[in-house]
Amino acid sequence: MGGGFMGPGGSGGDGYPGKLTLSVLISCVLGAMGGLIFGYDIGISGGVTSMPAFLEKFFPSVYRKEELDKSTNQYCKFDSQILTLFTSSLYLAALASSLVASYATRRFGRRISMLVGGLVFMVGAILNASAFNIFMLIFGRILLGFGVGFSAQSVPIYVSEMAPYKHRGALNNVFQLSITIGILIANIVNYFTAKIEGGWGWRVSLGGAAVPAIFISIVAWILPNTPNSMIEKGELQQARDMLRRIRGVSDGEIEAEYNDLVAASEASKQVQHPWKNLRLREYRPQLVMSVLIPALQQLTGINVVMFYAPVLFQSLGFGNNASLFSAVITGLINVIATFVAVFGTDKWGRRKLFIEGGIQMFIFQVAVAILIALKFGTSGKVTELPEWYSILVVMCICIYVSAFAWSWGPLGWLVPSEIFPLEIRSAAQSITVSVNMFFTFGVAEVFLTMLCGLKYGLFIFFSAFVAIMTVFIYFFLPETKGIPIEEMRVVWKTHWYWKRFIPDQDQQVNGNPV
């Protein structure tokens, strides 16, 4: 997509002036590190649930199937509703908290939501580390979920509003990068804590979540507010000064962007009920995307691979240490591949990465299903898994993970956060987070049961959704690369399908069609 456009504030040409200043780079990168707590939890959960001492203390029935009953079907050895609840309870709590966080983000600012998220997550980590019964363990998980909900609500909005539009994709993708780094750190921690004598290593793993939580709390305390947030609170001069500082240009050069932000804020103040307004016809494209993109992101099956990776590899016949080490490898691939999105999103565009990633995920999910079917069949029994075969399975999973890491992983957060007008932004982002957490909860809740029932067919199940969502992106998602966040309406107005929902206004697009 190319060409200029004319917005309501009178900006035109190639968009707003501005450069990637050191101030905005530091603010966006530190803010995006809010993803560390989400990533650490995803990575730590599967690791501790594969540790015999943890299972023996909290999930003795699973421990007996894993350690003592060697006749149990490999697919079904971890099938336990209580064990599933331990993993999935966090995401149900995150869903609920994101609805509260929507109000807090709009009323008190993005930083306050990030701070609350970090502090509540820290308390949950302390409870988990000191847990002596299942109730304490689950309650700690729920607090972790509240922390994740607040952070996931506020961080993408914060970064999108601070970043210059030409670099918005790269900077927002640091949020996903921080999630992958959190997963990798958790996998490494699990690998070493599993070797601690005395069976208390799981306490170190769970308590380690307090470290990124403290870091995020400190960062949220020192970060500046976004100009948008300042304007919403009536701090107009401070907002103007902040906009000039983060754009690195003169006061006159930020005039157009500042006026558009003020106009958008005034329009948003007229909206008394943003949740109700989301149902208006003119917001239909954003509403559809805020629901389908996070839903489809989870239906790729990625989180079951990431937070059940050690359990999954153990079910496939890997030893305990081998399964944890394999999880470290997939976590490392996840981090490295995310850099493709960080540097390529604003160069190649969102659509190309979405589509390429979808095709690659589909191919290698089917490949994993075939490899598992050939060795395990439907009985789930195998006497020995050859080393070369194990390596082949891990390689296919890594290629699948890498595709997600540069497509649906970062873009599933980026695209929803950049398409909403200010008047519905907090409410719409809350829907995005809620849907994401609902489907994460749902998939986590049924994964182990589905693995037991569908066996290798589970990967075929997820690959079917990957095919559907790739087709959906091809036909219905317009390219959003290079469009200032307050001018995003233009991409819907020129899209072959969504234009029927957008009323005519004094806007125009020149150059190539969206």
Protein traits:
mainly alpha; 72% helix; two-stranded antiparallel sheet; 514 residues; single chain
What report would you give on this structure?
The protein is an all-alpha fold. The chain is 72% helix and 1% strand. The protein has 24 helices and 2 strands. It has a two-stranded antiparallel ribbon with strand order 1-2. α7 packs across α22, α8 runs antiparallel to α18 and α8 crosses α21. The longest helix has 30 residues. The protein is globular and about 70 Å long.
Helices and strands in order:
Layout: E1 5-6, H1 22-32, H2 35-48, H3 52-58, H4 60-68, H5 81-108, H6 110-129, H7 134-162, H8 168-193, H9 201-207, H10 210-222, H11 227-232, H12 236-247, H13 255-269, H14 274-277, H15 284-298, H16 302-307, H17 309-315, H18 320-348, H19 350-376, H20 387-405, H21 408-418, H22 425-454, H23 457-476, H24 489-493, E2 508-509
Helix pairs in contact: 1-7, 1-8, 2-7, 2-8, 3-4, 5-6, 5-7, 5-22, 6-7, 6-9, 6-10, 7-8, 7-22, 8-9, 8-18, 8-21, 15-21, 15-22, 17-18, 18-19, 18-20, 19-20, 19-23
